[in-house]
Amino acid sequence: MDIDLLIIIVFLVTTLAIGLYCSRSVTTFRDYAVGSRNMSTWVVTISLIATIYGGNFLHTQLTGYYYQGLYMLLLSLGSPLRFYLASRFIIVRMKEWLGDFSIAESMGRLCGRSVRILTAIFGIIVTIAKVSAQFKISLIIIESITSCNAPAYANYYTVILGLLVTAYTILGGARSVALTDVYQFCFFSICLPILTFTFLYNAQNTWINWQKFVNMSQFNLSQIATWDLSPTWDNSLVHLFAYFIWHSIFTFDPAQIQRFYMSSSIQQATKVFFKSGTIRIIFSLLFLVVIAALYTSGNSVPPKQKILDYIIQLNHFPGIKGLLITAIIALCISTVDSYLHTGSVLFANDIWPFITCSRERTDKYSLRVVRISSGLIGIATILITLHMSNIRQFLNKVFYFYTPSVTVPMIMACFGFRPRSAAVLWSMGINTAMTVYHIFIKGQAIRERDVFLSLIYGAFILLIFHYLLPKKPNTGWVGIPDDSPVKLQNQETKRWWLRKLYYFQSIFTTSYWKDTFPKNATTFIASGIYFIIYSSILLFYVRKVYIFSYIYWYIAVMAIGTIVTIYPTFHAYKQEGNRFLHGLWPILLCVVFFISGITYMKLSHFSPMSCALFIVNIGLSSLLLPYTITIVMLSFVLLIYRWIPPHLDLVSYKELITTETMIGLTILLSCLVYRYLRNTTNRQLQTIALTRSCDQQYALDSLHNQANWNRLDPTYSGKVLQDMADELNPYVVNLPIQEFQKKLYIFSQSLLKRAKEERTFTLDSKSIHKVDIEKLILKSYETVRKLDIPIQLLVTKKTKEKYLLTAPTTFERLLTINFLNLCQGKYIIDHAVYLTISDTLLSYPFPEPNQVSIRSTHEKQLKAPILSALAFSISTDADRPNISPTYVVTDELTSDYLPKTIHNLYQEESRQMVQAHGGYIETIETETGLTCLYILPIDGKKVMQFKRYHTDDLSNKVAETDESLAQEKELIRLLVSNTTLTEQKVKKTIHFIKQAHGNTIRKSGDPYYTHPMGVTKIVLEATKNADTILAALLHDVVEDTTVTLEQIELLYGVEVAYIVDMVTHYNTYGLRWKLDKSDNQIILNKCKDIRVVQIKLADRLHNLRTITARKLEDQKRIAKDTVEFYIPWSKKNNVLTWVSEMENICEQILNAGSS
After folding, report:
1. Would the CA dihedral through 136, 138, 141, 145 be positive or negative?
2. What is the mean pLDDT of residues 745-770?
């Protein structure tokens, strides 16, 4: 059997097998119409391209590029541009029609049932015309086959081909069409590389032919004035521009737009149309390469000869003719099955319900109808094919009907203009009447430009009728219902450009080149050895005539290799290098790998070994340098090729195909694969490192909290229980039940507070800064993208706030772990995450009054704070949640956020971080989506949970000096001799505050616990009251350490706890939050307890006495505050003992500052 015929038969049988195999899963109308919308992006993309490329595509492209050159390339870019513009401006605005089955259904939802029916009729006419045209092209191709008496039986073979395509389209629907399109397109794709290889392999005088090719007028931009422009359009620039505009307009071709309805989401549909446009640009360039190879090979094409016919006649290899004919047939049937499938869907979904007057559709019934209609349309097109004469004219007439009627209203609707249904019907009627008049009455031949003009006329007619008819609600420029995909696309585009800009800027930074510098000595040794071996091998291939002229070049390369090899042994070697070496390293690689490689190739007259090693050099450079730098270096060297001595012409392509170069290409591919695997592994390690760092930080904080509570535990829990048991001994008969019930209650509160603290993530007060929200969002987004996760992020800002007071690393971690987990979760669609930022409020109410145990809370209590906040809603659903005006934050222990699986662990970590900011968290999970709502105060320093211990404190070491120990002994002596306190009680209390304050040092350099001892010594001058003295020693432990007020009450009683609470600058009742300066002063003004006044004044006086260690501005602030509040307050409460001293110190500070 003829090998050409065998290729055609095998292809057709395989196509039928694939189509029938895919039809097994079709059980519903949805499966048939849109393939259940679960096909991959690449399958739908290739199906779209195969639908566009008809059977005449290969013939027109090759002929056009050969005779029109770059002008044909310019025209070919118009259609890919159409799909790029459609993905950017049309498809992304069609979310409301995503669930439809056809363009007619979308038009019906837009303009009513009558418009839907007319659109379906026009669409079926288009599909019949397209299918008939492709069958006609197949008939012409079959007539060109000489074997099996094909010309005589061409009609029968065409009918068989038509029945074959109709068969698997009837049974398989969208899935069979799409997957056979993939197979057919892949078969077509291999033709271009094979043709290029064939031409170059048989080329003679390659360089001379290349020079002739680039100097031809149609391939030379400098001779643009001599180009022969399109015969369909005038040669004027205006008409050329109009042609380009026409081919850039998306016409809503029924089969092409059907790929939109087959997509699972707007994001997938956008990718489908964008990728199809990009791939078609690549194919346009490939056609130019094929024609360049044809010219370079020296083939002489007779004038006005069709290029495809000429190539088929060459027959360089057996089967090449069958391959080309099969490629044409593949393009034909890939277009046929798509339009046949679309036509049947239009009939079954949009016309048949109208004919039968049925509104409800059953799957089995609709599936039967759509299959029958597919068969009828297929048979009808076969019959039309046998009587068709002019394909182009037939298609132009059909689109003359369709374009103004469907394209115009759909484009307007996508941009937010909703025309009246009556206006669309009038427009369709007038356009149809004009078309019938021009075609059937005047007998006018319809050209492509006439179709374009009909589009413009249709737009004017529609607008005129819309504004002439009475206006109805929800018509006109009302916008699109959901513009979130548009915003998402715009933001992704902006981030893409920012990413490229940042990368470009990074190239000019020292850190970029530092990262490319090898960190391992083995890399230098291996590179240097390769340089030496590489240069030594190629020396044997250098022609003798060049040996002495280029000996110094060889010595220089050997010297570079030697220095690089022994560089790690240098005394000055540093693993990270320095700025000079960071810049020198890529220069050396460029010289040795590329410039030296080109030089050696020329010196050896392009010997196979030199060419192979040059290819290996490219692969090795890709391992040592970033792709961008490698490509730039290689491009630069190839650009200056002719100026690199010696000056030689290129050899023929055939001479370069040797065993050595094939081995070199294998090594190059191996290097590229290794680099890909290495980068993939590095990204996985980065993911592990990111997760590990978060887990380690979280675990470390938990361990610190546990260690801190374990350190403090002996001071209250076990000892208090033992004391309670000892106190029970004398009262075996008559127990003070009420008192011990209260102690037990307070103790339970203390344990509860400890449980809360142990589950709380705390912040470092020094790490709090005002951060730019958008920059941190972008940084977190880029962190996720660097892990090779294709996240799409739509940020919607409903606030004017740009900054947030937070710990930058913590907030970035919060965003990163949520982006990372949500974009890979089970609810995600196309990795799209929606972040909405809104204004709201956070309220911090007090607990129920019946839980009060310390009476000072009533006296100290002020109005609960309400802070401005931002709501960060991170969701997998485009529907934005309703944000409440106020969210209530409490310190209640709940299990609402307990992770259910390991995939939800990030929610617990997020809860910890948000609560550390004094925020609110809510997780909303439905059957279709997941929303994580985080409310953070804009300036939450007042309510943030800060660490009140240092990690050094966890070792149970305390800051002590000889001087502090002496002060400690003196204070014990004074208190024992002047008060009723026992030495044991005083020592125990001092030990307690030493343990609580740990290693904390004052600005003066003294241990912190010397401050409460100093305050106590001052208080002793005014009172001998034991409770006041103990409160003076303990006055800072609740404010500055993790000791709680409940502990103070259990250890020292309610009176001491009350005094400590009143002098503490924090709310100790419920959620801990810091009092404002004004709030604190209001509390002190209301307080009538002289003990509180004495301790606060003593505290202020001791701070004034030790104020010299502070900065001058801090001294002035404290002095001013003392003069304005504390001195008048002391006089008001008649505590005058220390007034004069405070006045003197403040006066000195303020005078010193003013002088």
Report:
1. negative
2. 70
State how far the Cα of 50 lies from the Cα of 67, in Å rounded to an integer: 25
Domain residue ranges in the chain = 3-388, 391-470, 517-683, 759-937, 957-1154
* CA angle 1069–1072–1073, rounded 5-degree value: 115
Listed in sequence order, the residues at least 6 apart from 405 whose beta carbon sits closer than 8 Å to its beta carbon are 118, 119, 122, 427, 428, 431, 432, 458
As a three-state string, the secondary structure of 452-518 is HHHHHHHHHHHHHHHHHCCCCCCCEECCCCCCHHHHHHHHHHHHHHHHHHHHHHHHCCHHHHHHHCC
Assess whether pLDDT exceeds 80 at residue 394. Answer: no
Which residues are CB-contacts of 1034 (< 8 A; sequence separation ≥ 6)? 989, 992, 993, 1012, 1048, 1052, 1056, 1060
Output the six-digit token pair for 664. Answer: 């070199």
Angstrom CA distances, 169 to 334, 372, 766, stand at 11, 11, 69
What value, to the nearest 5°, has the Cα angle with vertex 662 and ends 658 and 667?
A: 150
Crossing angle for the helix pair 962-978 and 983-997, to the nearest 10 degrees? 140
H helix intervals, 190-226: 191-201, 206-214
CATH code for residues 759-937 = 3.30.565.10
What are the backbone angles phi and psi of residue 833, rounded to the nearest 5°? -115, 135
Question: Taking Cα atoms as reference points, which of 215, 202, 190 lies closest to residue 299?
Answer: 202
- Here the tokens at position 310 are 């000429």
The arrangement of secondary structure in 957-1154, i.e. its CATH architecture, is Orthogonal Bundle (1.10)
CA distances in angstroms from 341 to 124, 217, 523, 653, 760, listed in the order given: 10, 44, 59, 45, 61
Cβ neighbours around 313 below 10 Å, total = 9
The catalytic site residues sit at 1039-1040
Could you tell me the CA-to-CA distances from 1043 to 383, 1010, 1062, 1064 in Å, in that order?
93, 18, 15, 12
CA distance 130 to 771: 59
* CB-CB contact of 1094 with 1028 (8 Å): yes
Instruction: Give kind and range of the element (H or E) at residue 703.
Output: helix 659-712
pLDDT at position 746: 64
Instruction: Say if residues 90 and 411 touch (Cβ distance below 8 Å).
Output: yes
- CA end-to-end span of the chain: 111
Q: What fold characterizes domain 3-388? A: Sodium/glucose cotransporter (1.20.1730)
Q: Is a pLDDT exceeding 50 seen at residue 150?
A: yes
Tokens 């675990």 found at: 699
Determine which helix (DSSP H) or strand (DSSP E) holds 772, and give its type and residue range. Answer: strand 769-772
Using the structure block, give the residue that is written with the tokens 């209301």.
1086
CA distance 915 to 944: 8
Nearest in space to 179 (alpha carbons), one of 14, 19, 345? 19
Between 113-143 and 391-402, two packed helices, what is the crossing angle to 10 degrees?
A: 170
Q: How confident is the model at residue 586, as a pLDDT?
A: 92
- The position carrying tokens 């030697």 is 562
> 0.85 cut: is pTM over it?
no
Please report which residue ranges of 728-769 form alpha helices under DSSP H: 737-758
Give the separation between CA 37 and CA 28, rounded to whole angstroms.
13
Neighbours of 696 (CB within 10 A): 11
Burial class (CB in 10 A: 0-12, 13-18, 19+), 632: middle
Residue 678 CB: number of other CB atoms within 10 A?
11
Condensed to tens digits (0 to 9), the pLDDT of residues 33-91 reads: 898 888 889 999 999 999 988 877 877 888 888 888 887 888 788 888 889 999 999 99
d(CA 715, CA 718): 8
Between helices 983-997 and 659-712, what is the axis angle to 10°? 160
Residue indicated by tokens 């196509």: 15
Contact by Cβ (8 Å): 70, 221: yes
**Structure-token match 């529609």, residue found:** 462
Q: Choose among 1088, 1135, 1126: nearest CA to 1104.
A: 1126
Q: How far apart are CA 1134 and CA 1093, in angstroms?
A: 10
Instruction: Specify the length of the chain in residues.
Output: 1155
